[in-house]
Amino acid sequence: MDLTRSPADEAFRAEARAWLVAHVPAVPLPSLETAEGFAAHRGWEAELAADRWSVVSWPSAYGGRDADLMRWLAFEEEYHAAGAPGRVGQNGVSLLAPTLFDHGTPEQRARVLPPMATGEVVWAQAWSEPEAGSDLASLTSRAVRADGGWRLSGQKTWSSRAAFADRAFGLFRSEPGPAKPQQGLTYLMFDLLAPGVTVRPIGRLDGKPAFAELFLDEVFVPDEDVIGEPGQGWRVAMSTAGNERGLTLRSPGRFLAAADRLAALWRTHGDPSDTALRDRVADAVIGARAYQLFTYANASRFLEGERIGPESSLNKVFWSELDIALHETALDLLGTEGESADTEWSEGYVFSLAGPIYAGTNEIQRDIVAERLLGLPKGRR
Ligand SMILES: Cc1cc2nc3c(=O)[nH]c(=O)nc-3n(C[C@H](O)[C@H](O)[C@H](O)COP(=O)(O)OP(=O)(O)OC[C@H]3O[C@@H](n4cnc5c(N)ncnc54)[C@H](O)[C@@H]3O)c2cc1C
Questions:
Q1: Which of 244, 241, 230, 159 is nearest to 188 (CA)?
Q2: pLDDT mean over 39-50
């Protein structure tokens, strides 16, 4: 791994830092899991996009800066260190966009990516179903051939921010009764305001209303919104899953910034005689640094032409456990003050608890690591 940075790389980082210093709102925006916060974060996406900071790793033709992974990681470090708002466009930018770069048509990229980059169209991920989470291939929502397109029916669930999003992407069974459940699936984009779509919020632990389930009743989708070949949706979806668990969903910058805040908290609130808590602070800071280096190593391999494989599951387990440890340690430091107030730490703690579940549960990721990375025998299913 070569960590030397060129003067151009350093200039990119400095430009990002200066822009963020000048633009990050002085008062944090309301939570993006509320209607008010969602709208405010959409505005923030537009502000980022106006100066081409919303999608730095995309080609400039779509509003990006052609940044390679190392520059993207540098941008993310600066972004989180500056305390910039969470990204309401994240599902689209981190999951759908890479899928379109790999499998979409030029027409789809030209139509979908620019309004995604500006936050004008915010996307929800509609993969999970009530009986198809870990075993995604067992999904039963259908896509039936219609004149000029498809009609979608069924139920999707656990869709982050779908209560306020504009459009969604998901997998549908287009060929009933294939030999293997992974066959006969089609990957489609659809409008959350289309006739036949009902969006119903699901209550979350923190009471915020953006999480939702979707009911689809004969929703028409034109052929131009199929990604890849009909029936080949599994292959398309797997490239999205690699991105979700691996490099792009949780950049190290997020945890490095949290670790810095935790160290600062120790300095103001820590009891020097509490060596057990002090060690947990140190462990969390070391964990964030380790995650940064591991990600740099993966990014270097990626830039040398390797594909991200099962090690993306290692990433997923590591960041989700690190996130919980960082927040638990902060709350223990703050004592009752931390738990009673609606602070960044208490809100982050509640969300961190979902980390081992979303983007594929950690039990499943551990199976992947055991079987595909370590070559251990397959467990019982
Ligand atoms: C905050 C949050 C946000 C989410 N956002 C989205 C979203 O935007 N879009 C979306 O489509 N989905 C989303 N999800 C859904 C998430 O991807 C699923 O919850 C997850 O894949 C697990 O599926 P499940 O809930 O059906 O649980 P199940 O698959 O029923 O699993 C239940 C338990 O059994 C374990 N288990 C199951 N099979 C095995 C096995 N073979 N070996 C070992 N253990 C096993 C699991 O690990 C888990 O602990 C979100 C979930 C959460 C909590």
A1: 230
A2: 98
Q: Is residue 72 classed as helix, strand or coil in its secondary structure?
A: helix
Closest ligand 1 atom, CA of 162? Answer: 8
**Beta-ladder partners of 187:** 171, 227
Question: Hey, CA dihedral for 8, 10, 14, 20, is it positive or negative?
Answer: positive
Q: Which two tokens stand for residue 19?
A: 């822009």
pLDDT at 283 over 60: yes
Q: Which atom of ligand 1 is nearest to the CA of 127?
A: 11
The model's pLDDT over 154-181, given as tens digits with 9 standing for 90+, comes to: 999 999 999 999 999 999 999 988 789 9
Tens digits of residue pLDDT in 227-254: 999 999 999 998 765 554 456 668 899 9
**Cα 20–Cα 26–Cα 27 angle in degrees, nearest 5:** 130
Q: What's the 71 CA to ligand 1 centre distance in angstroms?
A: 32
Is the beta carbon of 159 within 6 A of some atom in ligand 1? yes
Task: Pick the residue whose CA is nearest to atom 22 on ligand 1.
Answer: 133
Q: Whose CA is nearest to atom 29 of ligand 1?
A: 134
Query: What is the distance in A from the centroid of ligand 1 to the CA of 320?
Result: 14
Report the C-alpha gap between 307 and 228 in whole angstroms. Answer: 20
Q: How far is the CA of 344 from the centre of ligand 1 (A)?
A: 25
Q: Where are the beta strands (DSSP E) in 47-160?
A: 123-126, 142-146, 149-159
- Answer for the pair 260, 81: CB distance below 8 angstroms, yes or no: yes
Task: Write out pLDDT tens, residues 342-370.
Answer: 678 988 999 999 999 998 999 999 999 99
